[in-house]
Amino acid sequence: MPTTVPAYGKEAAERLASMADVTADDRALRRFLHGLPGVDAVGLQARAATLGTRSIKTTAKAYAIDLAISMIDLTTLEGADTPGKVRSLCAKGINPDPTDRTVPQVAAICVYGDMVATAKEALRGGGSGIHVAAVATAFPSGRAALPVKLADTRDAVAAGADEIDMVIDRGAFLSGRYLEVFEEIRQVKEACVREDGTAAHLKVIFETGELQTYDNVRRASWLAMLAGADFIKTSTGKVAVNATPPVTLVLLEAVRDFRAAVGVQVGVKPAGGIRTSKDAIKYLVMVNETLGGEWLSPDWFRFGASSLLNDLLMQRQKLSTGRYSGPDYVTVD
User: What is the pLDDT averaged over residues 209-226?
Assistant: First the structure.
């Protein structure tokens, strides 16, 4: 069950404040981001490929499958979404396999902002602890004026969203207008604060398939974390190239280095294109080898997925019974 990630401690807050000069103006921010170590693309890809070959034995595989299920942001982001579909998805998130009550619940249900109230109602009363995540800020394009993006975020938070998945303005980032992107993230972070002083967690989506280089992905990661991101996320799932192991490895290294420098732990969410248990386990190995077991929790690592859960359920049953189920074993969302 996801828990609330603690606010910054005093030491971390002070260390963050000490970096305020980095974001004082466009020139300082550009100097800092372009001063980050460059990414060795060949080495990165080789490292990701090597980690993907690790052999996972039966007991560890069973643990990894359950862990992956507990990390899923079960997602429906279609123009044809209906309240009935969202309620059905929530029921599946609470009880992924009606024939086996030992299957973990998912971490969150991810929907458009207008479906947040429906999801909250569907999850209420079950004691599930499943979060509701809402995409915002003109998802997936990010093409809207800042007041519109802030209103989008506030509406979702007011409807009960526990988490906000925002998209950065890739055009501004690729044009080098880093401070503009920083300010947008910072203001969306402020819009996540509720009237009682609590706040929805903010996941910042880069759409890494459009950022062109691994160096840009690293810069975007640091930019978002400096602006207050609770999670950094690869993709919307709406473009041709979404999460990949090398890109996710860049994000993992960035959060590792950020915590070493500032003392703040940030989560990572690869999204889009992760459909099989084999793929999910490769990502878990990468997290463990890069960040250690501390990040192997729904509080710090998520999968943005819609079809992944079905494959995990089928592989889980294969481990327990020795055979695969028929095509009707899992629901098609």
Answer: 97
